[in-house]
Amino acid sequence: MTPGPILTAAEMRAAEAAVIAAGTPERLLMERAGLAAADAIRLYAGNLPALVVCGPGNNGGDGYVVARLLRERGLDVRVAALADPRSEAARQARSRWPGEVESLGEARPAPLLIDALFGTGLTRPLDEPVAQALARLAAAARIRASLDLPSGVATDDGAILSPVTDYDLTITFGALKPSHRLQPAARHMGRLVLADIGVPVESRLQDIVRPLLVAPGPADYKYSRGYVATIAGEMPGAAALTAVAALRGGAGYVRLVAPEIVPGVPSAIVQGKGEAAEVLADPRVSAAAIGPGLGKSDEARALLEQVLAADAKLVLDADALTLAAEAGSDILHRARFTPVLTPHAGEFSRLFPACQGSKVDRARQAAREARAVIVYKGPDTVIADPEGRAAIAAAAPHWLATAGTGDVLTGVIAAMRAWGFEAFEAACAGVWLHGRAAELAGPGMIADDLPGHLPAAFAECL
Predict the structure, then answer these.
(1) Which of the chain's ends, N or C, has fewer CB atoms near its CB within 10 Å?
(2) Are 388 and 375 in contact (CB under 8 A)?
């Protein structure tokens, strides 16, 4: 599947302005948006009586179009407005609404609330009376839908500017915006629908979608599918999770290098005597993973140095990132190939304390600084590369918030690197497979359960 672009407010305004300048009337874009939203709302909510609350901008104009089209289809629809429309397109949309327009503050609730107050571009909190009126109407509704973004949400960084209720449905136009994926805003969107309104869009920020993988062919053998060396330390069980995930994630050969034999590891994973430097010197090793359970001792530092000197594609996590933070992030420049780093929020702040801005901004800054692909983990995982590309994953199942799941992700990404994916693409594929495996595992899963669901997730990508 082709990753979809994610546009900031400024980028979306520029894209729309270019289409309008080329001859498409703004009112036609508004009609397209309103039609797409009306179709989605009708499909989701059926024939419930509806209240559309409209703001003074073009989001409100979209709301008037939605209200008119739903009424034409036989629904009981009312409209409440915060203020008169400001743009010519919004004024035209209101003029075509055949019904009355109530005051927002005095509007009675309806079973279906359609929020068209403020969409893309909101930069400040709602005025208190507006926030209170919206909260009152939302609390009384059975189904809540928003146009573009829920009112009270910033567009570009996932911030909540005013208290936001949980919406059941959000319809956005042209492209996703960062706050459709970034937390805490993303948790309030409900089902997300992207409507094509005829505005060409492109961006260096994209949505992570199901990757396209290729099944092994008749000419493949274990080393052609990739040899992953997993380097263990003080807690080899964590590295064992990484090794199992690499094998289940498609690598043809996985070696677990640990101080001693780790019990319970599948027999297909190679263990046995051998120093890390000796294993890493094998030219057949295509990727190496280090960090889970590594520890912070002098021995751990020495192992990290050996891995950084290896002629292999590297994936670093956990303690390896902590040790790199202590040594200075420029230690990562020693890697021959672009490494993949998979920090959670705490590890990220230690390794890149100077990075500022949104989560996307910080990931991009870190990628440039470390000359690495950054997988900034969390409920809104962001991936960035040194050239400025970035991607955001859809929210993964909340039950991934348990010990060891990050170790599994490290192994999956290592398998993708061993297969031959470039660092950024490997990270995106690994994050998708990891999240899908968690969905298949279901609530109550533990990290040990995840690798067993990777083959099914993998099969969906062939």
Answers:
(1) C
(2) no
**What are the Cα distances from residue 458, in Å, to 30, 246, 399, 433?**
40, 12, 20, 7
Q: How far is CA 348 from the centre of its chain?
A: 17
Give the integer Cα–Cα distance in Å for 138 and 147: 14
DSSP string, 397-429: PGGG-STTHHHHHHHHHHHHHHHT--HHHHHHH
> Residues 101-122: pLDDT tens digits?
999 999 999 999 999 999 999 9
Distance, in Å, from the CA atom of 442 to the CA atom of 400, rounded to the nearest integer, reads 10
What are the CA-CA distances from residue 342 to residues 5, 56, 303, 319 (Å)? Answer: 23, 43, 18, 11
pTM: predicted TM-score of the whole model, two decimal places:
0.95
Q: How many residues does the chain have?
A: 462
- Check whether the bond before 184 is cis (ω within 30° of 0): yes
Q: Are 392 and 225 contacting, i.e. CB atoms less than 8 angstroms apart?
A: no
Number of neighbours of residue 215 by Cβ within 10 angstroms:
10
Are 285 and 310 in contact by the 8 Å Cβ rule? The answer is yes
